[in-house]
Amino acid sequence: MRNKKIIWLLFIISFIIFNKISFSEKRQSFKPKFSIKLTAGGGYVAIGDMNKHLDSMNNYEDILGTSVSDVSGKIEKLNNLSNDWELELKIDGSPRIGFGIAASFFHRRNQSSIYAYQPEFGRDYEMIFKPEIKVIMPFGLNLYYSIYSGSKLNIFINSGIGWYLGKMTENKIQNFTYPLGDVYFVNRYWEVENNFSLGFRGGVGFEYSLIKNLALVVELQGRYIRIGNLEGTVKYETNFGSGLTIVERGTLHFFGYGDNYDLDIPLPYHIFNEIDYIERNAVLDLSGFLLRIGIRIKLF
């Protein structure tokens, strides 16, 4: 919460400074310039609860029980490297001040599994995880201030605010194969989303003019994006006994203790007495930093 307040304050201060500078400049004939900017790149994103949960699934004795043997495989976390891209309409309102209207997209998914033999039951056990994250920023507003402008090179600082739509899914599949070849399963699939979250960012960059209407753009940014209140459905299926399918709706929760954490919509019964037990709404954390490279095409 403190970080969020600081970023809000920096955004407001930068907005005031930019406007003060623009009004203090001498009046001169300046025609607004329009351009399209397309950048893509990578960086570090926190991801947060999802990765903490996935990593804890590798505590084999706690998750599978002490009776397992011949364990192989690993549940992989989602890669913290970002594949972020951004499309922006930029408007230069003065020689130093500009703003942009932007849209961007982030996507990450994987599949991993572990295998084990349970001699107590004489069966093979397989646990598979298929997590996926999608985040779209359909609308963002960026502010720019040029700190150096030459015939070829332009160095600037910027800050921005965006409207983010986040979606997460996870499919947990458990297969049990018995000595006679019978195969049973216990599946859990949840899908949640949040249609409105604000994110903040700021950074520095430069443009180098290649030809008259085309420039190379490089940007280094830090950002703060935390998406909570993820609402959706969870579906449980099994073919043990006569088979069963259950569907529930609600808010995605993060809960657990020690080195064991899970994500699910309904909370478990309160049978835990551990001091470090955690129970709260899950959060998708895309805070971090990124480096983007692209081009800016001047329109008119």
Low-confidence stretches: 21-27
Mean pLDDT comes to: 87
N-to-C SSE series?
HEHHEEEEEEEEEEEEEE
Shape: elongated
Multimeric status of the protein: single chain
Strand order of the largest sheet: 1-3-4-6-7-8-9-15
CA(first)-CA(last) distance: 42 Å
Q: Roughly what fraction of the amino acids lie in strands? A: over 45%
Secondary-structure class: mainly beta
Please give the count of helices: 3
Sheet having the most strands: 8 strands, antiparallel, barrel
Count of individual beta strands: 15
What is the share of helical residues?
10-25%
Rg from Cα: 25 Å
Could you characterize the architecture of this molecule?
With 300 residues, the chain is mainly beta. 12% of the residues lie in helices and 63% in strands. The protein has helices at residues 2-24, 49-56, 60-64; strands at residues 33-48, 69-74, 85-92, 97-109, 112-118, 123-149, 153-177, 183-211, 214-227, 231-238, 244-251, 253-257, 260-264, 278-281, 284-298.
